[in-house]
Amino acid sequence: xxxxxxxxxxxxxxxxxxxxxxxxxxxxxxxxxxxxxxxxxxxxxxxxxxxxxxxxxxxxxxxxxxxxxxxxxxxxxxxxxxxxxxxxxxxxxxxxxxxxxxxxxxxxxxxxxxxx
Amino acid sequence: xxxxxxxxxxxxxxxxxxxxxxxxxxxxxxxxxxxxxxxxxxxxxxxxxxxxxxxxxxxxxxxxxxxxxxxxxxxxxxxxxxxxxxxxxxxxxxxxxxxxxxxxxxxxxxxxxxxxxxxxxxxxxxxxxxxxxxxxxxxxxxxxxxxxxxxxxxxxxxxxxxxxxxxxxxxxxxxxxxxxxxxxxxxxxxxxxxxxxxxxxxxxxxxxxxxxxxxxxxxxxxxxxxxxxxxxxxxxxxxxxxxxxxxxxxxxxxxxxxxxxxxxxxxxxxxxxxxxxxxxxxxxxxxxxxxxxxxxxxxxxxxxxxxxxxxxxxxxxxxxxxxxxxxxxxxxxxxxxxxxxxxxxxxxxxxxxxxxxxxxxxx
Lengths: 116, 363
Ligand SMILES: C[S@@+](CC[C@H](N)C(=O)[O-])C[C@H]1O[C@@H](n2cnc3c(N)ncnc32)[C@H](O)[C@@H]1O
Hints:
heterodimer; A: 4 helices; B: alpha/beta; Rossmann fold; 8-stranded mixed sheet; two-stranded antiparallel ribbon; 14 helices; 46% helix; 12% strand; globular; binds S-adenosylmethionine
């Protein structure tokens, strides 16, 4: 039923082996962009923790690592944090794309995996 | 982590176990935003630019697998497209890495949960440590390290990874629930036994079981990590589904056994000979009058513009989906009909809405 030899070709397909593609002629540009994107994430993690620490100090008068891990922001605070994160990424990466009409995430998925 | 090295239980996000630390989850929120901002938002613009660039450099995109490297090279001359591709790849690698690091920190506990679930219900799971794994299935699909088959915690990783991928659109399994609700049924309306192929973490059969509580619901996947996790996830929701590690091209079920067979996003991840065998197997295990519903990427028109579609090619090559180009070009609608099915809807908009609905003629 399963004709294995007919499947030998799959080994040769691009994507069968995990490659390390780069997208600029000079791969150092890829590396730099990657470093910047990842640094942005680490910086955001610190900002988020700082917001929680300040919030806990203001509301509870104390803070422990455990309190930070268990912290669940109220819907208002959550929305505020989401908003400042969006602002943060937009400010930092503003030079890319921002001047063009944006595709909404739903339209992107529908183009990729069909309507739901 | 607390000072005494214990992780606090951070609960779940919808049906997905939370990451181990607040920092990991925050990092993932950032990745989601970046995907919206750098990938989704400029998609239209980047698609137009890439087409212009390929046309200008006379780089055809319709000769898979030969075209992958030339297309990538040509697009490296257009910085906005190259940046888009870089962002896509980096963000994808970054979320897998962080998700794996995060769950692995409490990997022992998560493995114990899987072991315990293997022997508990509701529902069941059957898998085999000596399963004869075909080579084609060992690819790191979506560049998820270990893919669907090689990491014990692969189901956990996939769950959080697809949550990030869908950027909120599938939170609480909303997308799968909606798909289940609109699944085309056999014309006589009888649904007492159903089968989901390539079930992943089992979101679709769980939603189907909720809609048809009396039905006997089965789901198979080639990856043991997937069926084990799918069973744990269904069990935690109190839903009774039977998961089995099995290849869709070699179904261990009697002929004429099921009323409804479904496959959501399986077909673009299997090579053409396996696609063909799977359609034959679905036909065999369905009863006369039964229905096979396939949701997947749209088929590509053979007379298509040779400079369009860069995203499919580079997704296949750089996001570990090496068979997806074969799938979009294979005309699954016709293949279904050649196997003996009747295609219920042929119009493109209907297919986008209902998937490919294939009816096995009533006896
Ligand atoms: C993209 S996932 C889709 C999961 C699920 N259907 C969903 O809607 O989220 C594809 C799944 O198909 C499985 N798969 C790949 N080849 C298979 C085969 N030959 N037989 C059964 N399952 C297979 C993979 O292990 C993976 O879990």
